[in-house]
Amino acid sequence: MKIKNTEKIISPPPVHFVGDGFRVHNFIPGVYPLTMARMDPFLLLDYNSKYYFSPTDKPRGVGVHPHRGFETVSIAYKGRIAHHDSFGNSGVIGEGDVQWMTASSGLLHKEYHEKEFARAGGDFHMVQLWVNLPAKDKMTPPKYQPITNDQMGRYILHGDDGIIEVIAGSYRDVKGPASTFTPMALMNARLNAGGKAEFEFPSAYNTAALVVEGSVLVNGTEKVPSDHFALFSNDGEQFTIEAQEDSIVLILSGEPIREPIAAHGPFVMNTRTEIYQAFEDVESGKFGHLED
Ligand code: MN
Fold it and tell me: Tell me: the pLDDT tens digits for 197-223?
């Protein structure tokens, strides 16, 4: 087993707003070298670092928009998000929970701060990750996997080191509840100060770690501060993360799909023709209807 070294430690890029409710650092595909091809199957990672939103009776968020060809994975660390789609589905992503939405053949949806959270105001802290689908699955029917925190796999680390919350894939013998179309792992390492965890993924998997809280040392040498992103090389399988203070680290690792990517806004397909088709299908109502 060889060490998986870090390829680059990336500072959070300047924020921009998605709608008026998501104040995000766009790491994938916004920052070199985190292109969609380099991070395959992870297409996009928007990180709303912890940010206080003042109380309001008019919830902030992003209005009706389509998606086709991939999955959106929303991870709420602080705050709550309400969503509604064009097929009548709705729900709330609670603090500590995850929504794994397979947009696949297409839907319209809107994402807002949950009403009571908006009314009280508070810290909002979340990740939205887009996961690509293989060509053969891009036009399957949409589906949801709401994953509450208590449904996640839990691996208790040695001593008082902390826990690994497994959302997808597995950590040692503990599996996450998410079903995925291609092999991948997604987990939160919640480490106490001084706590250490070892990770192992195939060298070909594209692998990264986002420090959501605290600060850590990777492989005993590389310091990764809060809100920074560590990209791993494809040179080995194993790495360690050691918390320098109480920390939360999101770990993502996936087998590349290695198919052509044609991406335009909320559509990620394999060819330009399929992108034009997506625009036409939205126009003709194939994505359903949703009021703002
Ligand atoms: Mn969306």
Answer: 999 999 999 999 999 999 999 999 999
Distance 191 CA to ligand 1 centre (A): 30
CA 12–ligand 1 middle distance (angstroms): 22
> What's the gap in Å between 242 CA and the centre of ligand 1?
34
Q: How far is the CA of 267 from the centre of ligand 1 (A)?
A: 11
pLDDT band at 256 (very low <50, low <70, confident <90, very high): very high
Compute the distance from residue 68 Cα to the ligand 1 centre, in Å. Answer: 10
What is the tens place of the pLDDT at every residue in 5-63? 999 999 999 999 999 999 999 999 999 999 999 999 999 999 999 999 999 999 999 99
Q: How confident is the model at residue 142 (pLDDT cuts 50, 70, 90)?
A: very high
Q: Give me the domains of the chain, ranges plus CATH numbers.
A: 6-254 (2.60.120.10)
Cα(171) to centroid(ligand 1), Å: 29
Cα(222)–Cα(211) distance, integer angstroms: 13
Amino acid type, 85: D
Distance 222 CA to ligand 1 centre (A): 34
